[in-house]
Amino acid sequence: MKNNIVIITGITASGKSELCDNLIEKYGNISIINCDSKQVYEEIPIITAQPPKQEVFYKLYGYVSAKENYSVGLWLEDLEKEVNHALENAQIPIITGGSGLYISSLIKGLSSMPQISQKVRKNVSELRKNLSKEEFYKLALSKDPRIQGKVFMNDSHRLSRALEVITETGKSIFVWQENRQPPLFNNFKIYTILPKREDVYRKINSRFITMIENGAIDEVKKLLSMNLAPHLPAMKAHGVPEIIKYLKGEITLDEAIQIAQTNTRHYAKRQYTWFKKQFLNAEVIDCANKLKIF
After folding, report:
1. pLDDT tens-digit profile of 21-66?
2. What is the CATH architecture assignment of 5-112+182-195+271-290?
3. Binding residue per annotation — 14?
4. Could you say which residues bind substrate here?
């Protein structure tokens, strides 16, 4: 291959994992490397749809404690080791996942983002909890007008991050993002899977029910038993906040399932818009089965 590093990305539930399974069956000289910010956590393999641990072809899955505030910078360090190891062993590295920040940092270089104090993080978290979505959005917009048209009301995670940065530093998050380090690699080919939304939404709904049946509730019980801070990334994985509310008796299980499905569909919708605009050099396909890599 001219480009000896492959990136397979796309929205959640687009078929990335199934495609990688098929590639493993068909070829023996590949290494599948995770690019999903929640699939790194050891305690939540079911609710984050991680591949089986015994699968030797898969790297950077389920190897970080949920106690850790794992970052894109740490992931890039781990990724570099795995990619170089694969290349040294005549394997083709296939980096796959849907975390936009991870992929953007890999392709464009890591932004020099500031450290956020626990005080600011806690204050923003309280605001996010106590304000309505509209109120929280208006607050963030009043502090950082540059988010208009770039960060939207339903994207509470990115709104929180923007508010944290402007509060901590007095500078817009977009000012920080403009200052990037050089990318780790430039010899890659990127594929983006963007299926029909209706198909993705159906898969999201059925997949979450399967996760519940396979033990997702027990995973969340374990997280609660660890007394983790609510701002930690593992506590924000899709489905975790909704199951926590169910376990605390605030909502029924049916309500938790419905809310988690709805929130994940909204996330997929935002991903769809983001991926269409971000990687103009990517080969875009609407079905994982149509992807021809080799």
Report:
1. 888 888 888 999 999 999 999 999 999 999 987 678 999 999 999 9
2. 3-Layer(aba) Sandwich (3.40)
3. yes
4. 12-17
